[in-house]
Every structure is written in C-alpha cells, then in structure tokens.
Amino acid sequence: MSAPAGHAVLAVLAAGGLALLALALAAGMVRARLLRGVAIALVVAAALAALAYLVLGAPGARLAVPVHLAGVAPGLALDGLAAFVLLVLLPGVAGWLAVAPRLALPLAVAGASVLAVLAADAGTLGLALLLAGLCAAVIGGRGVAWAAGGAVAALVVALALAAGDGRFASARAHPAEGAALWLMVGLVLAAGVWLAARAEWGQGREGGPAGSVLATLGLYLLVRLGLDVVGPVAGLWAGVLVLAGAAGVALGGVATAIGGVRSGLVMLGLGIAVAARAGDDGPAAAMALGAALVLLAVLGWAQALWALVAHGLVGGAGTEALGRLGGLGRRMRITLVGALAAGWAVALLPPGGGFAGLWLMLRAAVTLPRGGGAAEWTMAGLVALALGAAAALLGFAMLRVLGVAFLGRPRGPRAAAAEEVAPRLRWAMLGLALLLGLAGLLPGLLLRLAAPAVVPLAGAAPPGGILGVMGYAPLGLVLLLALAAVAVALLVKAASPAGHRVAATWEGGAPSPAWLPFGDPSTQLGAAGFAAALLRHGQGARLRWRFWGLGRTTELARWLGAVPRRAAPVAALALLGAMLLLHGVGLW
C-alpha cells in the first residue's frame, strides 16, 4: 500500500469515528432500526478498512486537524498498532450495537474510542478518552468515570514531561532522561493498568461491553505509550507489569472474569517484551509482544461473543442464571455455537485461538532467562505459574458453564420452552464465532496481521507461518482429535449391550421418576462453581475488589483467614522489594 492510500484509510477511519459521534447526537431524531443499521454498517466498514490496511503493508499516515486546542493543532495518525487495535475493538462494538436497547451512548463510546486509538497527541487522546469514559460511566457506573479521569490526568502529565506540545512525535524525538523518564513511565503504567483493571471489574450485564471497550483502550495505552512513545525501561517496570498481570490472571481466573484474565495475560506479555528488549533479545520480545496482541484480539472477541450469548439467554430462556437453565443445546443451537466458540477460546485449550497466544508467551518466558540473572529467572517462573493457573481455572470454568447451561435436562419450564435469538443477533454471534474459529485454526494469519505492530516495537518479526506458530499446528491437531472422537464413538457403540438405556448428557446417568419432569436435582451438576467459597453469597461469579487503602479488603484475603487483613499490602511491598533487590543484584 502506498502512502496516499494509507492517508485515505486514515481519513476513512477518522470520518467513521466522527460519523458515529454525529449519529449519537442524532439518535433521538432517527428511527432506531435505520440508525442501528447505519451504525453497524459504519463499524463493519471501518473494520474492513483496518484489515485491508494491515494486509497491504500498513504504511504510516498522519492527518492534521484544522482546529487548535490550547494553541496546539491536534493530529491523527495510523500505523500497524492502531489498525490492529481497531480490528480488535470494532467487531465487538458491532455486536454491542446489534443488541443495545438505546444507541446514543454506545455510539458515543464507539466513536470516541476510534478517535482515541487514532490520536497522535495528548490533547486528542485525553479528550476522546474522557468522552468515552463519561459515556461508558452512564452505562456501567461511576467507577468507569474515575478510571477514565485518572488515566487522562496521568497521561497528560506524563506526555507534558517529554515535550511541551504533547505530541507523540515530539516525545519520540526528544526523549526524557533521568527522574523525568522514570516519572513518565510510572504515570503511563499507572494510567494503563488502572484503566484496564478498573474498567473490567464491577460491570453489570449492561455495562460490560462499555467496560470491555475501555479496558482495551487501557491496554492499548500500555503498548502505545509504554513501548512506543516513552520507550521501555527495563528492570523494575517489567517486574511491575508481570506482577500486575499475574494478579489479574489469578483474580480473574478465580472469579471467571474473562476481561480480568485478558488484561492480566496482555500485561504478562508486555512485561516479558520489555525485559527481552532490554537484553537485546529481539526474537523473545517479538514472541511476547505477538502473544500479547493475539490474546488481546482472541479474548476480546470471545468476551464480546459471551456478552451476546448472555443477552440471548435472557431473551430466549428468561435468565442467565445457571441454576435455572439446562438443556438449551436442543432449542438454541445458534447460541450454543456461539457459546462453544467463545468458551473454547477462553479456556486456552487447543485448537482454540487462546492457546496459540498462551503457547507463544510460554516460549518467550522460557527463552527469557538465557543470559539473564536471578530477576529473569524469577520473572519467567512467575509467568509460567500464572499461565498454568489461568489455563486450569478457565478450562474447568468453561466446562461447567457450558455443561450446566446447554446440556442435561432443562431445570425449569422457561428453559424447556426456550426460543432462539432474533436474526440480527444470530448473525452477530455467527460472525464473531467465525472470527474465533479462524483465529484458532490459522493463528499464524492473526500473527501476520499483528506483525506491522510488532516489528517496530520489538525489532524483529513474530515467528510462525500461516498454518502454525513455533511447532504448534492446529489443523493437524484437529484432524487427530476428529479421528480419536470417531474411534471412541465406534468403540462405545460396539461395546454397548442390547437394550441399554441412554440418559441425557450431563445428567449423571441416574433415572428420574415421572414426577420430576426436569430431572432429579441430586443427579445434576449444580450451578455453584468451585470458587464459591471465595465469593460472597448471592453474588454469583462476580468478585468485588476492595482495597485496604480505602478501609476495605478483598474477598480473597478474607477467605485466607489466617492472614491478617493488613498483611496484603505488606506482602505486596515485600514482593516488590524482592524484585528491586534482584534487579540491584543483577546491575551489580
């Protein structure tokens, strides 16, 4: 793609973001059906433009906005990283617009998010991010507004330290040094981690998509500002990213919060990439950053698809509470396809797309200790432990959710009479399921799309071909699994005696009396998860964050019991001090 074509794609994407904001303002004057169709068409067109930009080479493009803000001319820019993040955001936004009851605020969040990704200076980024946060706060709660406001304040101060005009190009050309550099990196990390973590937690079903969009923006800020504009600083900050990522993976896995796990895994990858770049290990940095971007995309699409599945369960079965569902696979087949696609990706199992990112990150973590010291060994071990815990927790959680909701017998009359979702929701589910299927079967293709973002930041191209990555070939694995499934089915059929009874799948096999039309509850797997002891009664699978600094504590710390409530900050400080000590020993 030539430079003029790149500028044309940038103009199209910027016009799409502004058009979404205009539609948000005109939401009360346009028929809802027409408005929804136009908005979804705009979002799909923008996603296709970003895809074409990545496929054709992703040349850099800049666009000056003919308006001055505080004496500074705002600017927009498009490169491989911005286009890839838009490709992650926009499919989920399209699904959100397909089911949102009121479109004004979702349209405003979508338009502001597109402009935030395209921003080339602190002013444009701050205004777009603040607008998205305020609109998302109306949908999801005040916590999102605090997250966006704090992130904007930290980012403006951080970029002002590097260049007075706040432009990203000026910050790259005149990098800060000494204490100013450390302060910049600290503010950028605080803003990105705070926005990504706070936007994901505490969101209800209506506010979930808005929180997911803002969390994606927070992770984008970590990559854009932490690795591109400010430049990575090794040692302590790599350790901070790894620690934050491990905490997000652990808490998200326990609470079955997909967004928390996604943020944690991406932070783990960024921490490994920063440490690898500091050691001039380009291949390891490329593997880690490629894994982070792959997981950002796959888990982002899976999270959006889960939101559509939950919306479909409420509309078709009357509830999304697992204890009142069951047997929906027979009556809601399209919803089952969407749940299977999302669940397989979230479970981080092959041949899902999440496993490819997990595999790459594990390879990068194993590569990291080569030529390093105690800090690198500690970081690699912590990353491997977090990845194993995430895979185990999410695998069991997805098996339980899918089995209880879609297999067995219906647990109530409403579930027995469940209806399939509306046609537009079916197409949204199938589209996201197709994306996840392609990402799982062709992970190298997704990694190729991320290459224009990885190469400038890591100094090397991510490994792997279109059909596989680093010794992992999902198509061959699918063939082996299919042959094994056929062989098991034939053996079971051949070994089954004549006149045997076939029980409903996931029911437990025990016969139910005639006066229990919905099965015997004692033989069915219950809706309570294995982490129920960690969670407050009546809260389902939501883990509420409570910080000791605000006079509260986490439910996880309360469950530990033997550890005093105030020991959590002490333990965190001790761990941080240990990382500092290891870093100092390495420098010495």
Give the secondary structure arrangement, pairings included.
Blueprint: H1 3-25, H2 32-55, E1 61-64, E2 75-78, H3 80-99, H4 104-118, H5 122-140, H6 142-162, H7 168-173, H8 178-200, H9 208-229, H10 236-254, H11 258-278, H12 282-317, H13 333-346, H14 353-367, H15 374-406, H16 413-416, H17 423-441, H18 443-458, H19 474-495, H20 555-560, H21 567-587
Antiparallel strand pairs: 1-2
Helix pairs in contact: 1-2, 1-4, 2-3, 3-4, 3-9, 3-12, 3-17, 3-18, 4-5, 4-9, 5-6, 5-9, 6-8, 8-9, 8-10, 8-11, 9-11, 9-12, 10-11, 10-15, 11-12, 11-15, 12-13, 12-14, 12-17, 12-18, 13-15, 13-17, 14-15, 14-17, 17-18
Describe the structure.
This protein has 588 residues and is mainly alpha-helical. Among the domains are: 284-488, no CATH class; 547-588. Helices cover 68% and strands 1% of the residues. It has 21 helices and 2 strands. The chain has helices spanning 3-25, 32-55, 80-99, 104-118, 122-140, 142-162, 168-173, 178-200, 208-229, 236-254, 258-278, 282-317, 333-346, 353-367, 374-406, 413-416, 423-441, 443-458, 474-495, 555-560, 567-587; strands spanning 61-64, 75-78. The protein has a two-stranded antiparallel ribbon. Helix 17 packs across helix 18. It is globular.
Mean pLDDT: 77
Oligomeric state of this protein: single chain
Write down the secondary-structure element order: HHEEHHHHHHHHHHHHHHHHHHH
Number of helices: 21
What is the 3D shape? Answer: globular
Strand content range: under 5%
Distance between the termini: 48 Å
Low-confidence stretches: 202-206, 533-572
Largest pleated sheet: 2 strands, antiparallel
Considering DSSP H and I runs of 4 or more, what fraction of the residues is helical?
55-70%
Number of strands: 2
Order of strands across the widest beta sheet? 1-2
Radius of gyration: 24 Å
